[in-house]
């Protein structure tokens, strides 16, 4: 699974990088948008989504609190609450994401574009920060991102770094990797350290074997990109981590967004301290 | 030359890590202290010193302005001014540094403990930030520094990174190197980025060959320390850079501090944003 899929162009139905969060959500709600949100509403914060029954919500909330770098919480709903004013005007979590994934006991059972038939009064929504936001900041600072240049999805890897468990949720930290020259890596540390809401500073750089990654050319999620001889691989905690923990926990019922089909909020990346 | 020499214990004449800047300066002035200042007055900012004739001061000032990472200016005097209230109470630059070096046409001609017989009305004093300050911050953050643990001087290297020249001042950037695990290197970037007054963020990490360093085991200044397999070498711009540029320019007359015998000011490291 891949919450922050590629930056590839999206069939836009009039939507652009300058669209507002509300315009993107309305397009998703009306069925005009069922594709990726990458490249749309670039000023706005996009979020990873996890929707769990209230019986598991306490455990998952503790899991996020104990692992803030992979699981930076932007918002948590009340049980059954589907209007999330905190994240955006007229935001209905049942309809405003372009595509969802519905899971039962860890198996994918549906990929709907609307949740109304699946909604339950005990569902709690978690919105988690996404690396789209800090990539925006890195690009604004003039730091090239190879996967963006090549229209690929970012490369992601399971590590040997254990998350801190809570209830049934546990498993390895998943990281995303971006190759950079050392001077850019140093600047990227400074830029992303300012935004703990979207994974914060890298958790590793240099030798991948030190965090249990055997082969950079074989990512566990996403697409491989080349690391040039004058570059270092730089690793950030990744929003796939909580999805991986959910997959491990195999809850009787849960919902996530489909990879790359993010919740677009009204929050502004620049309010996170990004350009 | 080495402006920030080892952290080895100093014959203290009652001076300690808790001494004030003024106490250290008074001991230097009275002759009770002619040794290193490392480990003394740890709360206070220590500075590299360069004293040049006014005829060269404009060029050197531009050199510092153009190369702020190796040459972070803390203060510049008026020509002939030897009382530097800006840096400390009752601070007399002619007597308050434990040991000086006097240079003529690039040759060392004296290592006095007092400058009064060398003083001229056209001399301009430059005080430059020193890595003692940020090492204080790194240690306070729990980041071990191997050269400190081993009582050695930090390892320093000439690089293939050119400084931006000004008048006769030019030459390669000199860097200091500290080996760290990646997670500590990432924290060290964040900590030192906050203190541009004392060299700021690293300028490189990882492969030394990329900045023209052939062999880490053979530093150009200071003492080699081992880099373990799970560590990266992390490189900071170093205050030896301006001394190296002065040595290249071979001015008819100039004065520096003797390596490790720093000017101890009244400024507090914690006022730089360091713990």
TrEMBL record, chains A, B:
Pfam families: D-Glu_cyclase. Keywords: Lyase. It comes from Sphaerotilus microaerophilus. Its EC number is 4.2.1.-. This is Putative hydro-lyase CATMQ487_17220. NCBIfam families: PRK05463.1 (NF003969). Belongs to the D-glutamate cyclase family. HAMAP family: Hydro_lyase. The keyword Lyase applies. It is an enzyme of class 4 (lyase). It comes from the Bacteria. InterPro entries: D-Glu_cyclase, Putative_hydro-lyase, UPF0317. Residues 1-21 have a biased composition (Polar residues). Residues 1-38 are annotated as: Disordered.
């Amino acid at each position: 699974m891949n919450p922050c899929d590629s930056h590839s162009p999206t069939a836009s139905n009039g939507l652009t990088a300058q669209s507002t969060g509300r315009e993107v959500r309305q397009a998703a709600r009306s069925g005009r948008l069922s594709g990726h949100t990458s490249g749309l509403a670039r000023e706005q914060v996009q979020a990873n989504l996890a929707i769990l029954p209230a019986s598991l919500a306490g455990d998952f909330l503790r899991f996020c609190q104990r692992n803030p770098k992979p699981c930076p919480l932007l918002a948590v709903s009340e049980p059954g609450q589907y209007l999330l004013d905190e994240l955006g005007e007229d935001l209905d979590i049942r309809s405003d994401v372009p595509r969802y994934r519905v899971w039962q006991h860890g198996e994918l059972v549906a990929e709907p574009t609307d949740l109304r038939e699946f909604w339950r009064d005990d569902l709690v929504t978690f919105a988690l920060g996404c690396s789209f936001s800090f990539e925006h900041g890195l690009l604004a600072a003039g730091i090239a991102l190879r996967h963006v240049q090549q229209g690929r999805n970012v490369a992601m890897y399971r590590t040997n770094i254990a998350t801190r468990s809570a209830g049934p949720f546990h498993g390895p930290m998943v990281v995303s990797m971006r190759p950079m020259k050392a001077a850019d890596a140093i600047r990227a540390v400074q830029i992303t350290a300012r935004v703990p809401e979207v994974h914060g500073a890298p958790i590793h750089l240099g030798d991948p074997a030190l965090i249990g990654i055997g082969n950079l050319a074989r990512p566990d999620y996403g697409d491989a990109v080349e690391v040039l001889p004058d570059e270092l691989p730089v690793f950030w905690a990744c929003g796939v981590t909580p999805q991986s923990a959910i997959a491990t926990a195999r809850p009787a019922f849960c919902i996530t967004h489909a990879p790359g089909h993010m919740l677009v909020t009204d929050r502004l990346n620049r309010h996170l301290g990004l350009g």
